Amino acid sequence: MIEVSEWFKAEMEKQTLNVLRKFIYDDIDESERVKNFGSISRASDTIVSGGMSLDLINTDKNWNKFITDKTNLRRTAKLQIGLTNGEGEEWIDILTGWGDDPEFSKAMVSLPIRDKFAGLLEKKLGSGEVPLDYYSSAYNPADLTWSILTVHGGYDSTESTANIDIDYASWSAWKTACSTASFSLKARFTGETIREALELIRDLTNSDIHVSGAGKIKFFRFTQAAPPDESYLFNSDKVVDLSVKLNSDKIVNYLEAFYNYDMPPELLTN
């Protein structure tokens, strides 16, 4: 979940608003060099590496640093959107990652930005000859996932909110939710990818696993939002995107009468 102010949420529900965009590369605001920000989308039913492609202006050869030193592609890239309310600006991260395979054309550079899942998901766990076993005991799904990401994925294993790769607060809440539901798993991997393992754990626990806009892997277990006897009122005030086709036939006065109809008194006669 992205933490924003109530004002920010109310503004984002409007159909028309002026959204600010920012591109930060290696802690430098490079927004003025962006010609096209591209688009980004996420879905909870697939575990994939997300990202977007930017068209960057290179008239001053600023981005030639990727050619002279390819390690510059591994600097942190961050995309943000924001709103201004007259008193200041409020920003949220929508993508954090790094550059990947830029293409140069005249005075422009097309730079794909990949999130933290890039390079992780296709790593294999075990093999047919040397299986990776988690059979010594039953594991909380969160603990099994932690081991996969840190021991075999190479992610930070710091067990606190200081973890730079895993959103520790969401992982801890997810572990508690799995424990409350009495979930436990054993596993044997014989060459499956980390993506396949995470998708299986996600499906078995009815959860969501994704990379947040800030670049950390987050976890969430879907639960019943409210008791069955609770009800909610949805009216026109809740409509965000309205699509309506009107027919004027419904508002034109029309009447078939088999008797004389006098309009002024609106009475049937004879």
Write up this protein.
By secondary structure, the protein is of the alpha+beta class. The protein has 3 domains: 6-115; 124-221, no CATH class; 236-269, no CATH class. It is 18% helix and 30% strand. The protein has 5 helices and 16 strands. It has helices spanning 6-12, 65-68, 141-152, 168-180, 194-205; strands at 20-25, 28-29, 34-36, 51-57, 77-84, 89-99, 103-105, 108-115, 124-125, 132-139, 185-189, 192-193, 207-211, 217-221, 260-262, 267-269. Strands 1, 2, 3, 4, 5, 6, 7 and 8 form an 8-stranded antiparallel sheet that branches. A two-stranded antiparallel sheet has the order 9-12. A hairpin with a 4-residue loop joins β5 (77-84) and β6 (89-99). α3 packs antiparallel against α5 (194-205). The longest helix is centred in the middle third of the chain and has 13 residues, at 168-180. The N and C termini lie far apart (71 Å).
For the structure shown, list the relevant keywords:
single chain; 270 residues; alpha+beta; 3 domains; eight-stranded antiparallel sheet; two-stranded antiparallel sheet; 5 helices; 16 strands; 18% helix; 30% strand
